[in-house]
C-alpha cells in the first residue's frame, strides 16, 4: 500500500494570500494553486496535524473503528467528515474488517446506496457483508441465485450462520420445489456449523439424529448434542453483556413473568428456559442483524412474503416461505409454522407451549393439509414429518 510521506504533505506556510495562492515549482517559476485554500484568520500559519498523519496509520484506526462499531452510524459518520476520511474509510482493508453491527441496517432505511455499500463490503472480502446481503437478496429481493452465491461465499470462509442458513435452505428446498430438498447436504452443513460453535445448528443436528432425518437415527447421540447445545446457550449468556443487567437468581426456576431484557426495544420478552430442563431461565438470545432485517422487511408488508406465504413463527428468525406449505406446521393447533426444528424447539419453550391449544381438525387455507404436517412432542418440542 502506497502512503504519502511527511515531506510531500502541504505545508501551512505555502498559502499566504487568502485570494490567490502561489508557490514555486521545481524549476523555480511561480505557479498558482489549482484549488483555492479556505483559511480563517485564526488558523493561517498554523500546521494541520491531521494532514501530517500517514495514510496507513489512518487506515489502521478506521479498521479498528469498523470492527467495533455498535451501529451503522458509527462508521457512516466518518464517510461524511471529509474527503480524505471518505476515501480511506472505503479502503478494502477497512471494509473487510467491519463487524456485523455495521450492517445492521433497518428495513425502512433500505436504499440503493445501502445496497451498494453492502456490495462494496462483500467485494472487499467481508464475510458478514456476504451473509447479510445474501440473505436480503435471497429472501427479500427474491434474487435466489445471487443470494445463495453470496451465502456460499461466506460459508466457504467458515461463517457459521451462513452454513446454517444454507442447511435450512437444503432441508426445505427453498427457492425451488419439494423435490429439490437435499437432507444429507443439510445435515453435513449443520455438522460443519455446529463444529464452528453455532448453537442452533448443533440443536438442529441433535434433532436430526434423534429423528433419523437425513441421517441414520441415533437417539442417544442426538440427546447428547441437544444437552451440549443447551450448555453452550447458557455459557454464551453468562459470558455476554446480557448477563450484567439480569439477576441470575431469576434463572434458577421457571417463571411465566417476563425477564427484563437488556435491549429496551423488547422489554417484554420472556425468558427462554433451556430445552433439557436444567432449571435455568435465560434471556432470549439476540437475533442476527440479517434476521432482524428480514422480520422488519416482511413485517412492514403485513407479515407475509406473498400470497399464501408465511413467516417462521420464531420471533428471532424472520425467514419467509419461498413456496406454499414449505415450512413445517404444528399439528396440534395449526396456527404456527417453522423453517427448522431448532426454531420450533426454541419457540415452543419461549411462548408457544403456553399458547398451543389442541384442535379436533384444522385445514389449510387453500386445501387439506400441507407438506410439513407433523406431530409435536411436548417433552422436547421436536416436529416429526409424516
UniProtKB/TrEMBL annotation:
Q: Does the keyword Plastid apply?
A: no
What SUPFAM superfamilies does the entry give? F-box domain, HCP-like, HIT/MYND zinc finger-like
Q: Key word Lipid biosynthesis present in the record?
A: no
Q: Where is the composition biased (Low complexity)?
A: 374-386
Q: Cite the GO molecular-function annotations of the record.
A: zinc ion binding
| The MYND-type domain, residue ranges | 314-356
Question: Sorted alphabetically, which InterPro entries does this protein's record hold?
Answer: At2g35280_TPR_dom, At5g50450/At1g67340-like, F-box-like_dom_sf, TPR-like_helical_dom_sf, Znf_MYND
- Source organism superkingdom: Eukaryota
Name used for this protein in its record: F-box protein At1g67340-like
In its UniProt entry, the species of origin is given as: Durio zibethinus
Amino acid at each position: 500500500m502506497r502512503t504519502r510521506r511527511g515531506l510531500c504533505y502541504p505545508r501551512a506556510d505555502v498559502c499566504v494570500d487568502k485570494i490567490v495562492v502561489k508557490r514555486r515549482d521545481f524549476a523555480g517559476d511561480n505557479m498558482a494553486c489549482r484549488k483555492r485554500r479556505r483559511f480563517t484568520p485564526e488558523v493561517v500559519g498554523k500546521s494541520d496535524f491531521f494532514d501530517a498523519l500517514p495514510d496507513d496509520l489512518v487506515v489502521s484506526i478506521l479498521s479498528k473503528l469498523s470492527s467495533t462499531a455498535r451501529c451503522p452510524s458509527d462508521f457512516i459518520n466518518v464517510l461524511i467528515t471529509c474527503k480524505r476520511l471518505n476515501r480511506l474509510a472505503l479502503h478494502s482493508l477497512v471494509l473487510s474488517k467491519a463487524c456485523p453491527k455495521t450492517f445492521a441496517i433497518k428495513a425502512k432505511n433500505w436504499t440503493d446506496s445501502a445496497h451498494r455499500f453492502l456490495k462494496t463490503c462483500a467485494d472487499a472480502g467481508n464475510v458478514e457483508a456476504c451473509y447479510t446481503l445474501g440473505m436480503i437478496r435471497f429472501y427479500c429481493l427474491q434474487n435466489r441465485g445471487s443470494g445463495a452465491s453470496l451465502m456460499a461465499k461466506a460459508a466457504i470462509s467458515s461463517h457459521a450462520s451462513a452454513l446454517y442458513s444454507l442447511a435450512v435452505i437444503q432441508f426445505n428446498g427453498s427457492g425451488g420445489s419439494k423435490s429439490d430438498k437435499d437432507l444429507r447436504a443439510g445435515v453435513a452443513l449443520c455438522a460443519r456449523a455446529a463444529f464452528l460453535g453455532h448453537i442452533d445448528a448443533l440443536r438442529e443436528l441433535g434433532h436430526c439424529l434423534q429423528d433419523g432425518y437425513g441421517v441414520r437415527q441415533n437417539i442417544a447421540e442426538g440427546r447428547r448434542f441437544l444437552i451440549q447445545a443447551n450448555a453452550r446457550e447458557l455459557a454464551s449468556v453468562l459470558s455476554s453483556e446480557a448477563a450484567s443487567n439480569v439477576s441470575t437468581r431469576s434463572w434458577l426456576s421457571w417463571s411465566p413473568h417476563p425477564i427484563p431484557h437488556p435491549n429496551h426495544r423488547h422489554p417484554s420478552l420472556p425468558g427462554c428456559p433451556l430445552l433439557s430442563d436444567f432449571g435455568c431461565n435465560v434471556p432470549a438470545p439476540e437475533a442476527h442483524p440479517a434476521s432482524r432485517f428480514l422480520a422488519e422487511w416482511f413485517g412492514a408488508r403485513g407479515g407475509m412474503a406473498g400470497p399464501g406465504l408465511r413467516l417462521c413463527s420464531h420471533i428471532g428468525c424472520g425467514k419467509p416461505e419461498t413456496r406454499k406449505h414449505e415450512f413445517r406446521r404444528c399439528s396440534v393447533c395449526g396456527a404456527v409454522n417453522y423453517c427448522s426444528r431448532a426454531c420450533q424447539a426454541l419457540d415452543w419453550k419461549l411462548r408457544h407451549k403456553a399458547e398451543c391449544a389442541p384442535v379436533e381438525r384444522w385445514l389449510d387455507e387453500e386445501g387439506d393439509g400441507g407438506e410439513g404436517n407433523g406431530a409435536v412432542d411436548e417433552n422436547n418440542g421436536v416436529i416429526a414429518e409424516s
